[in-house]
Design a protein that fits this description.
By secondary structure, the protein is mainly beta. It is built from one helix and 25 strands. The strands form six sheets. Strands 1, 13, 14, 15, 16, 18, 21 and 23 form an eight-stranded antiparallel beta sheet that branches. Strands 2-3-4-11-6-9-12 form a seven-stranded antiparallel beta sheet, with no helix packed on it. It is globular and about 55 Å long.
Amino acid sequence: MSDPVETVLAGKPHDIGAFTVSRALPQAKRRHVGPFVFLDEMGPAVLAPGAGMDVRPHPHIGLSTVTYLFEGEILHRDSLGYVQAIRPGALNWMTAGRGIVHSERTDPAKRGGGMRMHGIQTWVALPPDLEECEPSFAHHPAETLHTTTIDGVALRSILGAAYGLTSPVAAPWPVFYLHAEFPSGASLAMTDDHAERAVYVVSGAIGIAGVEYGPGSLVVLREGAAARLSAKAATRAMLLGGAPLPGTRTIWWNFVSSDKARLERAKALWKAGGFPRVPGETEFIPLPD
């Protein structure tokens, strides 16, 4: 039997101030999996009493952000006026389209006692006809996300459709994204409903065709290859992928576009202060050099 694994990407550390994130996408060997063009694992980290996460207002275009937590809490504010606490198991879906600005912070009321933080943020590139759509925001509490258990593996649907589950988000492109909890000794056949598929190992280890992959590994599977995911010990993983988007996407800072000239216009607009502001916020992240 041929190896179902196409490539394996190890997350690369990036310091965002309060803690370090591990960035699995994009990398030189693989720029995307389906429409997913960015994957950061935040933590696990312990924020000391009085400390907190303070990602100042910053802009996005051409994508939707997906924030999903295992531990902790993030207070989201955006230029549409939404203020939303993100808690474990819930889904934040923010579509930038032609342009949105948001901040991600620890609620001042929650800083005194310290906090554990752990979660995943992904970016989903928009199809060409929606890159300049109106920005929007949707929040789905944990209890509204569909769940099931298959072969002992607990699955929670975050985006799209797979394993008979569907997300409450109306994604604009064929996609799947699930949180999977494997008990010791469990195994699960990877969905074959989508062209591009990958598994990101959060904790524990996933075995595929006799090889084990540990935390921080993004294992990309070959198109059409059957694969069974197994766990000798309790393991947490994210299953993701979908149909590849047409054309090529370029990422510069927080901007994603199929048109490089559009990236230049976005840079100039942020530098000139032309993006909408986040109500109640005065700080911002300057355009990188």
